[in-house]
Amino acid sequence: MNGITMGLNADTLILSALREDITSEDISTNSVMRDYCLGEVELIAKQEGIIAGLDVFKRVFELLDPATECIFTCKDGDRVENGQKLGVVRGDIRVLLSGERTALNYLQRMSGIATYTNSVAKLLEGSGTKLLDTRKTTPNMRIFEKYAVRVGGGCNHRYNLSDGILLKDNHIGAAGGIKEAVAMAKEYAPFVRKIEIEVESLDMLREALDAGADIIMLDNMSVEDMREAVRLAKGRAETECSGNVTKENIARLVDIGVDYISSGALTHSAPILDLSLKNLHAV
Hints:
By secondary structure, the chain is of the alpha/beta class. It is elongated, with a radius of gyration of 23 Å. It is built from ten helices and twelve strands. Helix 3 (54-64) packs antiparallel against helix 4 and helix 8 (202-211) packs parallel to helix 9.
């Protein structure tokens, strides 16, 4: 799949979604379409937004029948308009009917995330601050949702727990303190791994800097404290701002000077982009 490096993982997840929707048969389709019939259906946008997930949409139908064709007139990352025809799907009408909902679920969800991410990323243009996602993703949808963030103009934070070290409040509590947590991480992890630690005050920040953390996550701190934190960390560690960041409140963070702003809302609160498969007919 173009744009998704974990194709085998994606296939497994897509097949699971199809099995969720078709446990034994598609009784509605089989009742009205008993035999093979070549057909075509149009993919249409019902609102403006950024499209993402066309390869995933296509793969749903291919896994049901490799002979299915998807011919798109747009690509991931394109802005589409309400009423725009985005392409056609051609193949066995039974496959088109059975795969419709699962394919649209992926494409609508991913396009919604790309659209929302794009609207937030635009608010950071020119600031030098990168917009990051989080692990607050839908179970078994992470590879699709994080891909959609990138399509929308955001960047990916760590993919999963094996991908990077992030010591949060409970890790600090388990270790016995910031100094101890960072020291343990440095001892355990390969030297090529950066160590990020979450702090909630300037005192915690100073302790994290003295302990040698590479990235400091400023969690739910006041704007004034974050400005001071950036000043204190300059040249010593990168900084990340986190804590209930949304499109509605990110403007207050634009000129603070942090290296990164992470927002769980990119994946957990983005509405879908309304898309539809219409005008099914035999060819």
